[in-house]
Specification:
single chain, about 70 residues, mainly alpha
Length: about 70
């Protein structure tokens, strides 16, 4: 579980979403400094913990339901 949360949640979702969010801010002509980039990455990495844990939990529920219905 921990590997899934770190790889899929923190690294993939968290950093990926932070990059997209920062790019949107830049494209909307907001002044984006290094402090903003660091803050965005930190916030979305923390969010990635919750995203990864939720996806792991939902995947486990789906798997147990499919095994139960056999």
């Amino acid at each position: 579980m921990l590997r899934f949360v770190v790889v899929r949640g923190v690294l993939a979702w968290g950093i990926g979403t932070a990059v997209i969010f920062t790019a949107i801010q830049f494209l909307q002509h907001h002044e984006v400094g290094m402090a903003d980039v660091a803050r965005n990455i930190g916030m979305f990495m923390v969010g990635g913990i919750f995203w990864g844990a939720t996806m792991w939990w939902l995947g486990g529920r789906k798997k147990s339901r499919s095994q139960h219905n056999r």
